[in-house]
Write a structure and sequence with these properties.
Blueprint lengths: L2 H18 L1 H30 L5 H27 L5 H18 L1 H15 L8 E4 L2 E8 L3 E5 L5 E5 H6 L3 E2 L5 E10 L5 H13 L12 E7 L4 E10 L2 H21 L28
Helix pairs in contact: 2-3, 7-8
């Protein structure tokens, strides 16, 4: 048989098979179209229902995406079984399982960040707007996505952090509560009455507008004998945001300094005494002529 005849026969067989498969192809296309329509309808209903919940926006989008993937995948599987009767759902699932293992090894880090993002989205502790610290990263949480989170540092820089970093490392959430306790150390000279100095410091801190007296009292404790002063530990409560803490610390330190000056209490600086083994001769300055 001539090669040209063999080619023609093969093309005829392919054409005949395609014509015979037209009904299955048409049914498969209808199944896919129905799946797309059902997907849009179900997503619309799910998104409206999710908006009434307290779930985060990113988590709502994840649930909606998951529903869409399930519906579309099911439609494609049904269409594949219609077009290829030899296929079964179990064989398709087995193939998907083997493929997912291979993909999982190839994109291990991507899936790790994705799963960490899902867990973080379900947590209530870290919210959009919280000020956090993780390793060397500190700033405000601006966005939590599936794979990464966006942290805006206090200097204005935006840091995109993989979610696995936030999941596997300790995270300090500085704004988890509305107020935080702040501490400073204040020293007074050794000839000062300790009780009187404590009263002056306590009164000066209490008078500051940034100090939240309803959340907790001002605490002033004599802490240690310093090299040139008796040091007090001064603690109070103020707003938990970094700008609140800096502003409150500025106000409190200024108020303490002003109150101690008014009371005549010295805030000493370190004194240094030099001792020489041999006496040093003093050179007397000669009076100048004129």
């Amino acid at each position: 048989m001539e090669p040209e005849q063999i080619l023609i026969d093969q093309l005829r067989e392919i054409l005949r098979g395609s014509i015979e498969a037209l009904p299955q192809i048409a049914i498969a296309l209808v199944v896919i179209i129905v799946a797309i329509f059902v997907n849009k309808l179900v997503r619309f209903i799910a998104e409206r229902a999710l908006r009434k919940t307290r779930l985060r926006r990113s988590l709502q989008e994840l649930i909606s995406l998951g529903i869409s993937i399930v519906i579309v995948t099911t439609g494609i599987m049904i269409a594949a079984v219609v077009m290829f009767p030899g296929l079964t759902p179990s064989s398709i699932l087995a193939g998907l399982g083997i493929g997912s293992v291979a993909i999982g090894f190839a994109f291990k880090d991507v899936f790790e960040n994705f799963l960490a993002g899902i867990i973080i989205l379900f947590r209530r502790e870290m919210r959009i707007g919280d000020h956090i610290e993780c390793q060397d990263i500190e700033g405000e949480v601006r966005h939590i996505a599936m794979r990464e989170s966006h942290i805006r540092q206090t200097d204005g820089q935006l840091v995109i952090v993989p979610n696995s970093v936030l999941f596997k490392n300790p995270v300090k959430i500085r704004t988890d509560e509305a107020y935080r306790r702040v501490e400073v150390i204040c020293g007074v000279s050794y000839d000062t009455d300790v009780d009187a100095a404590r009263d002056v410091i306590t009164e000066s801190v209490t008078s500051c507008s940034s100090v939240e007296m309803d959340h907790g009292p001002v605490q002033v404790f004599a802490q240690e004998f310093g090299s040139s002063s008796i040091n007090f530990e001064v603690a109070w409560w103020t707003g938990s945001k970094p700008v609140n803490i800096r502003a409150s610390r500025d106000e409190v330190i200024s108020s303490i300094k002003r109150a101690l000056d008014d009371a005549g209490i010295e805030i000493p600086f370190p004194y240094r005494t030099l001792t020489f083994k041999e006496p040093l001769p003093l050179k007397q300055q000669e009076p100048s002529d004129g």
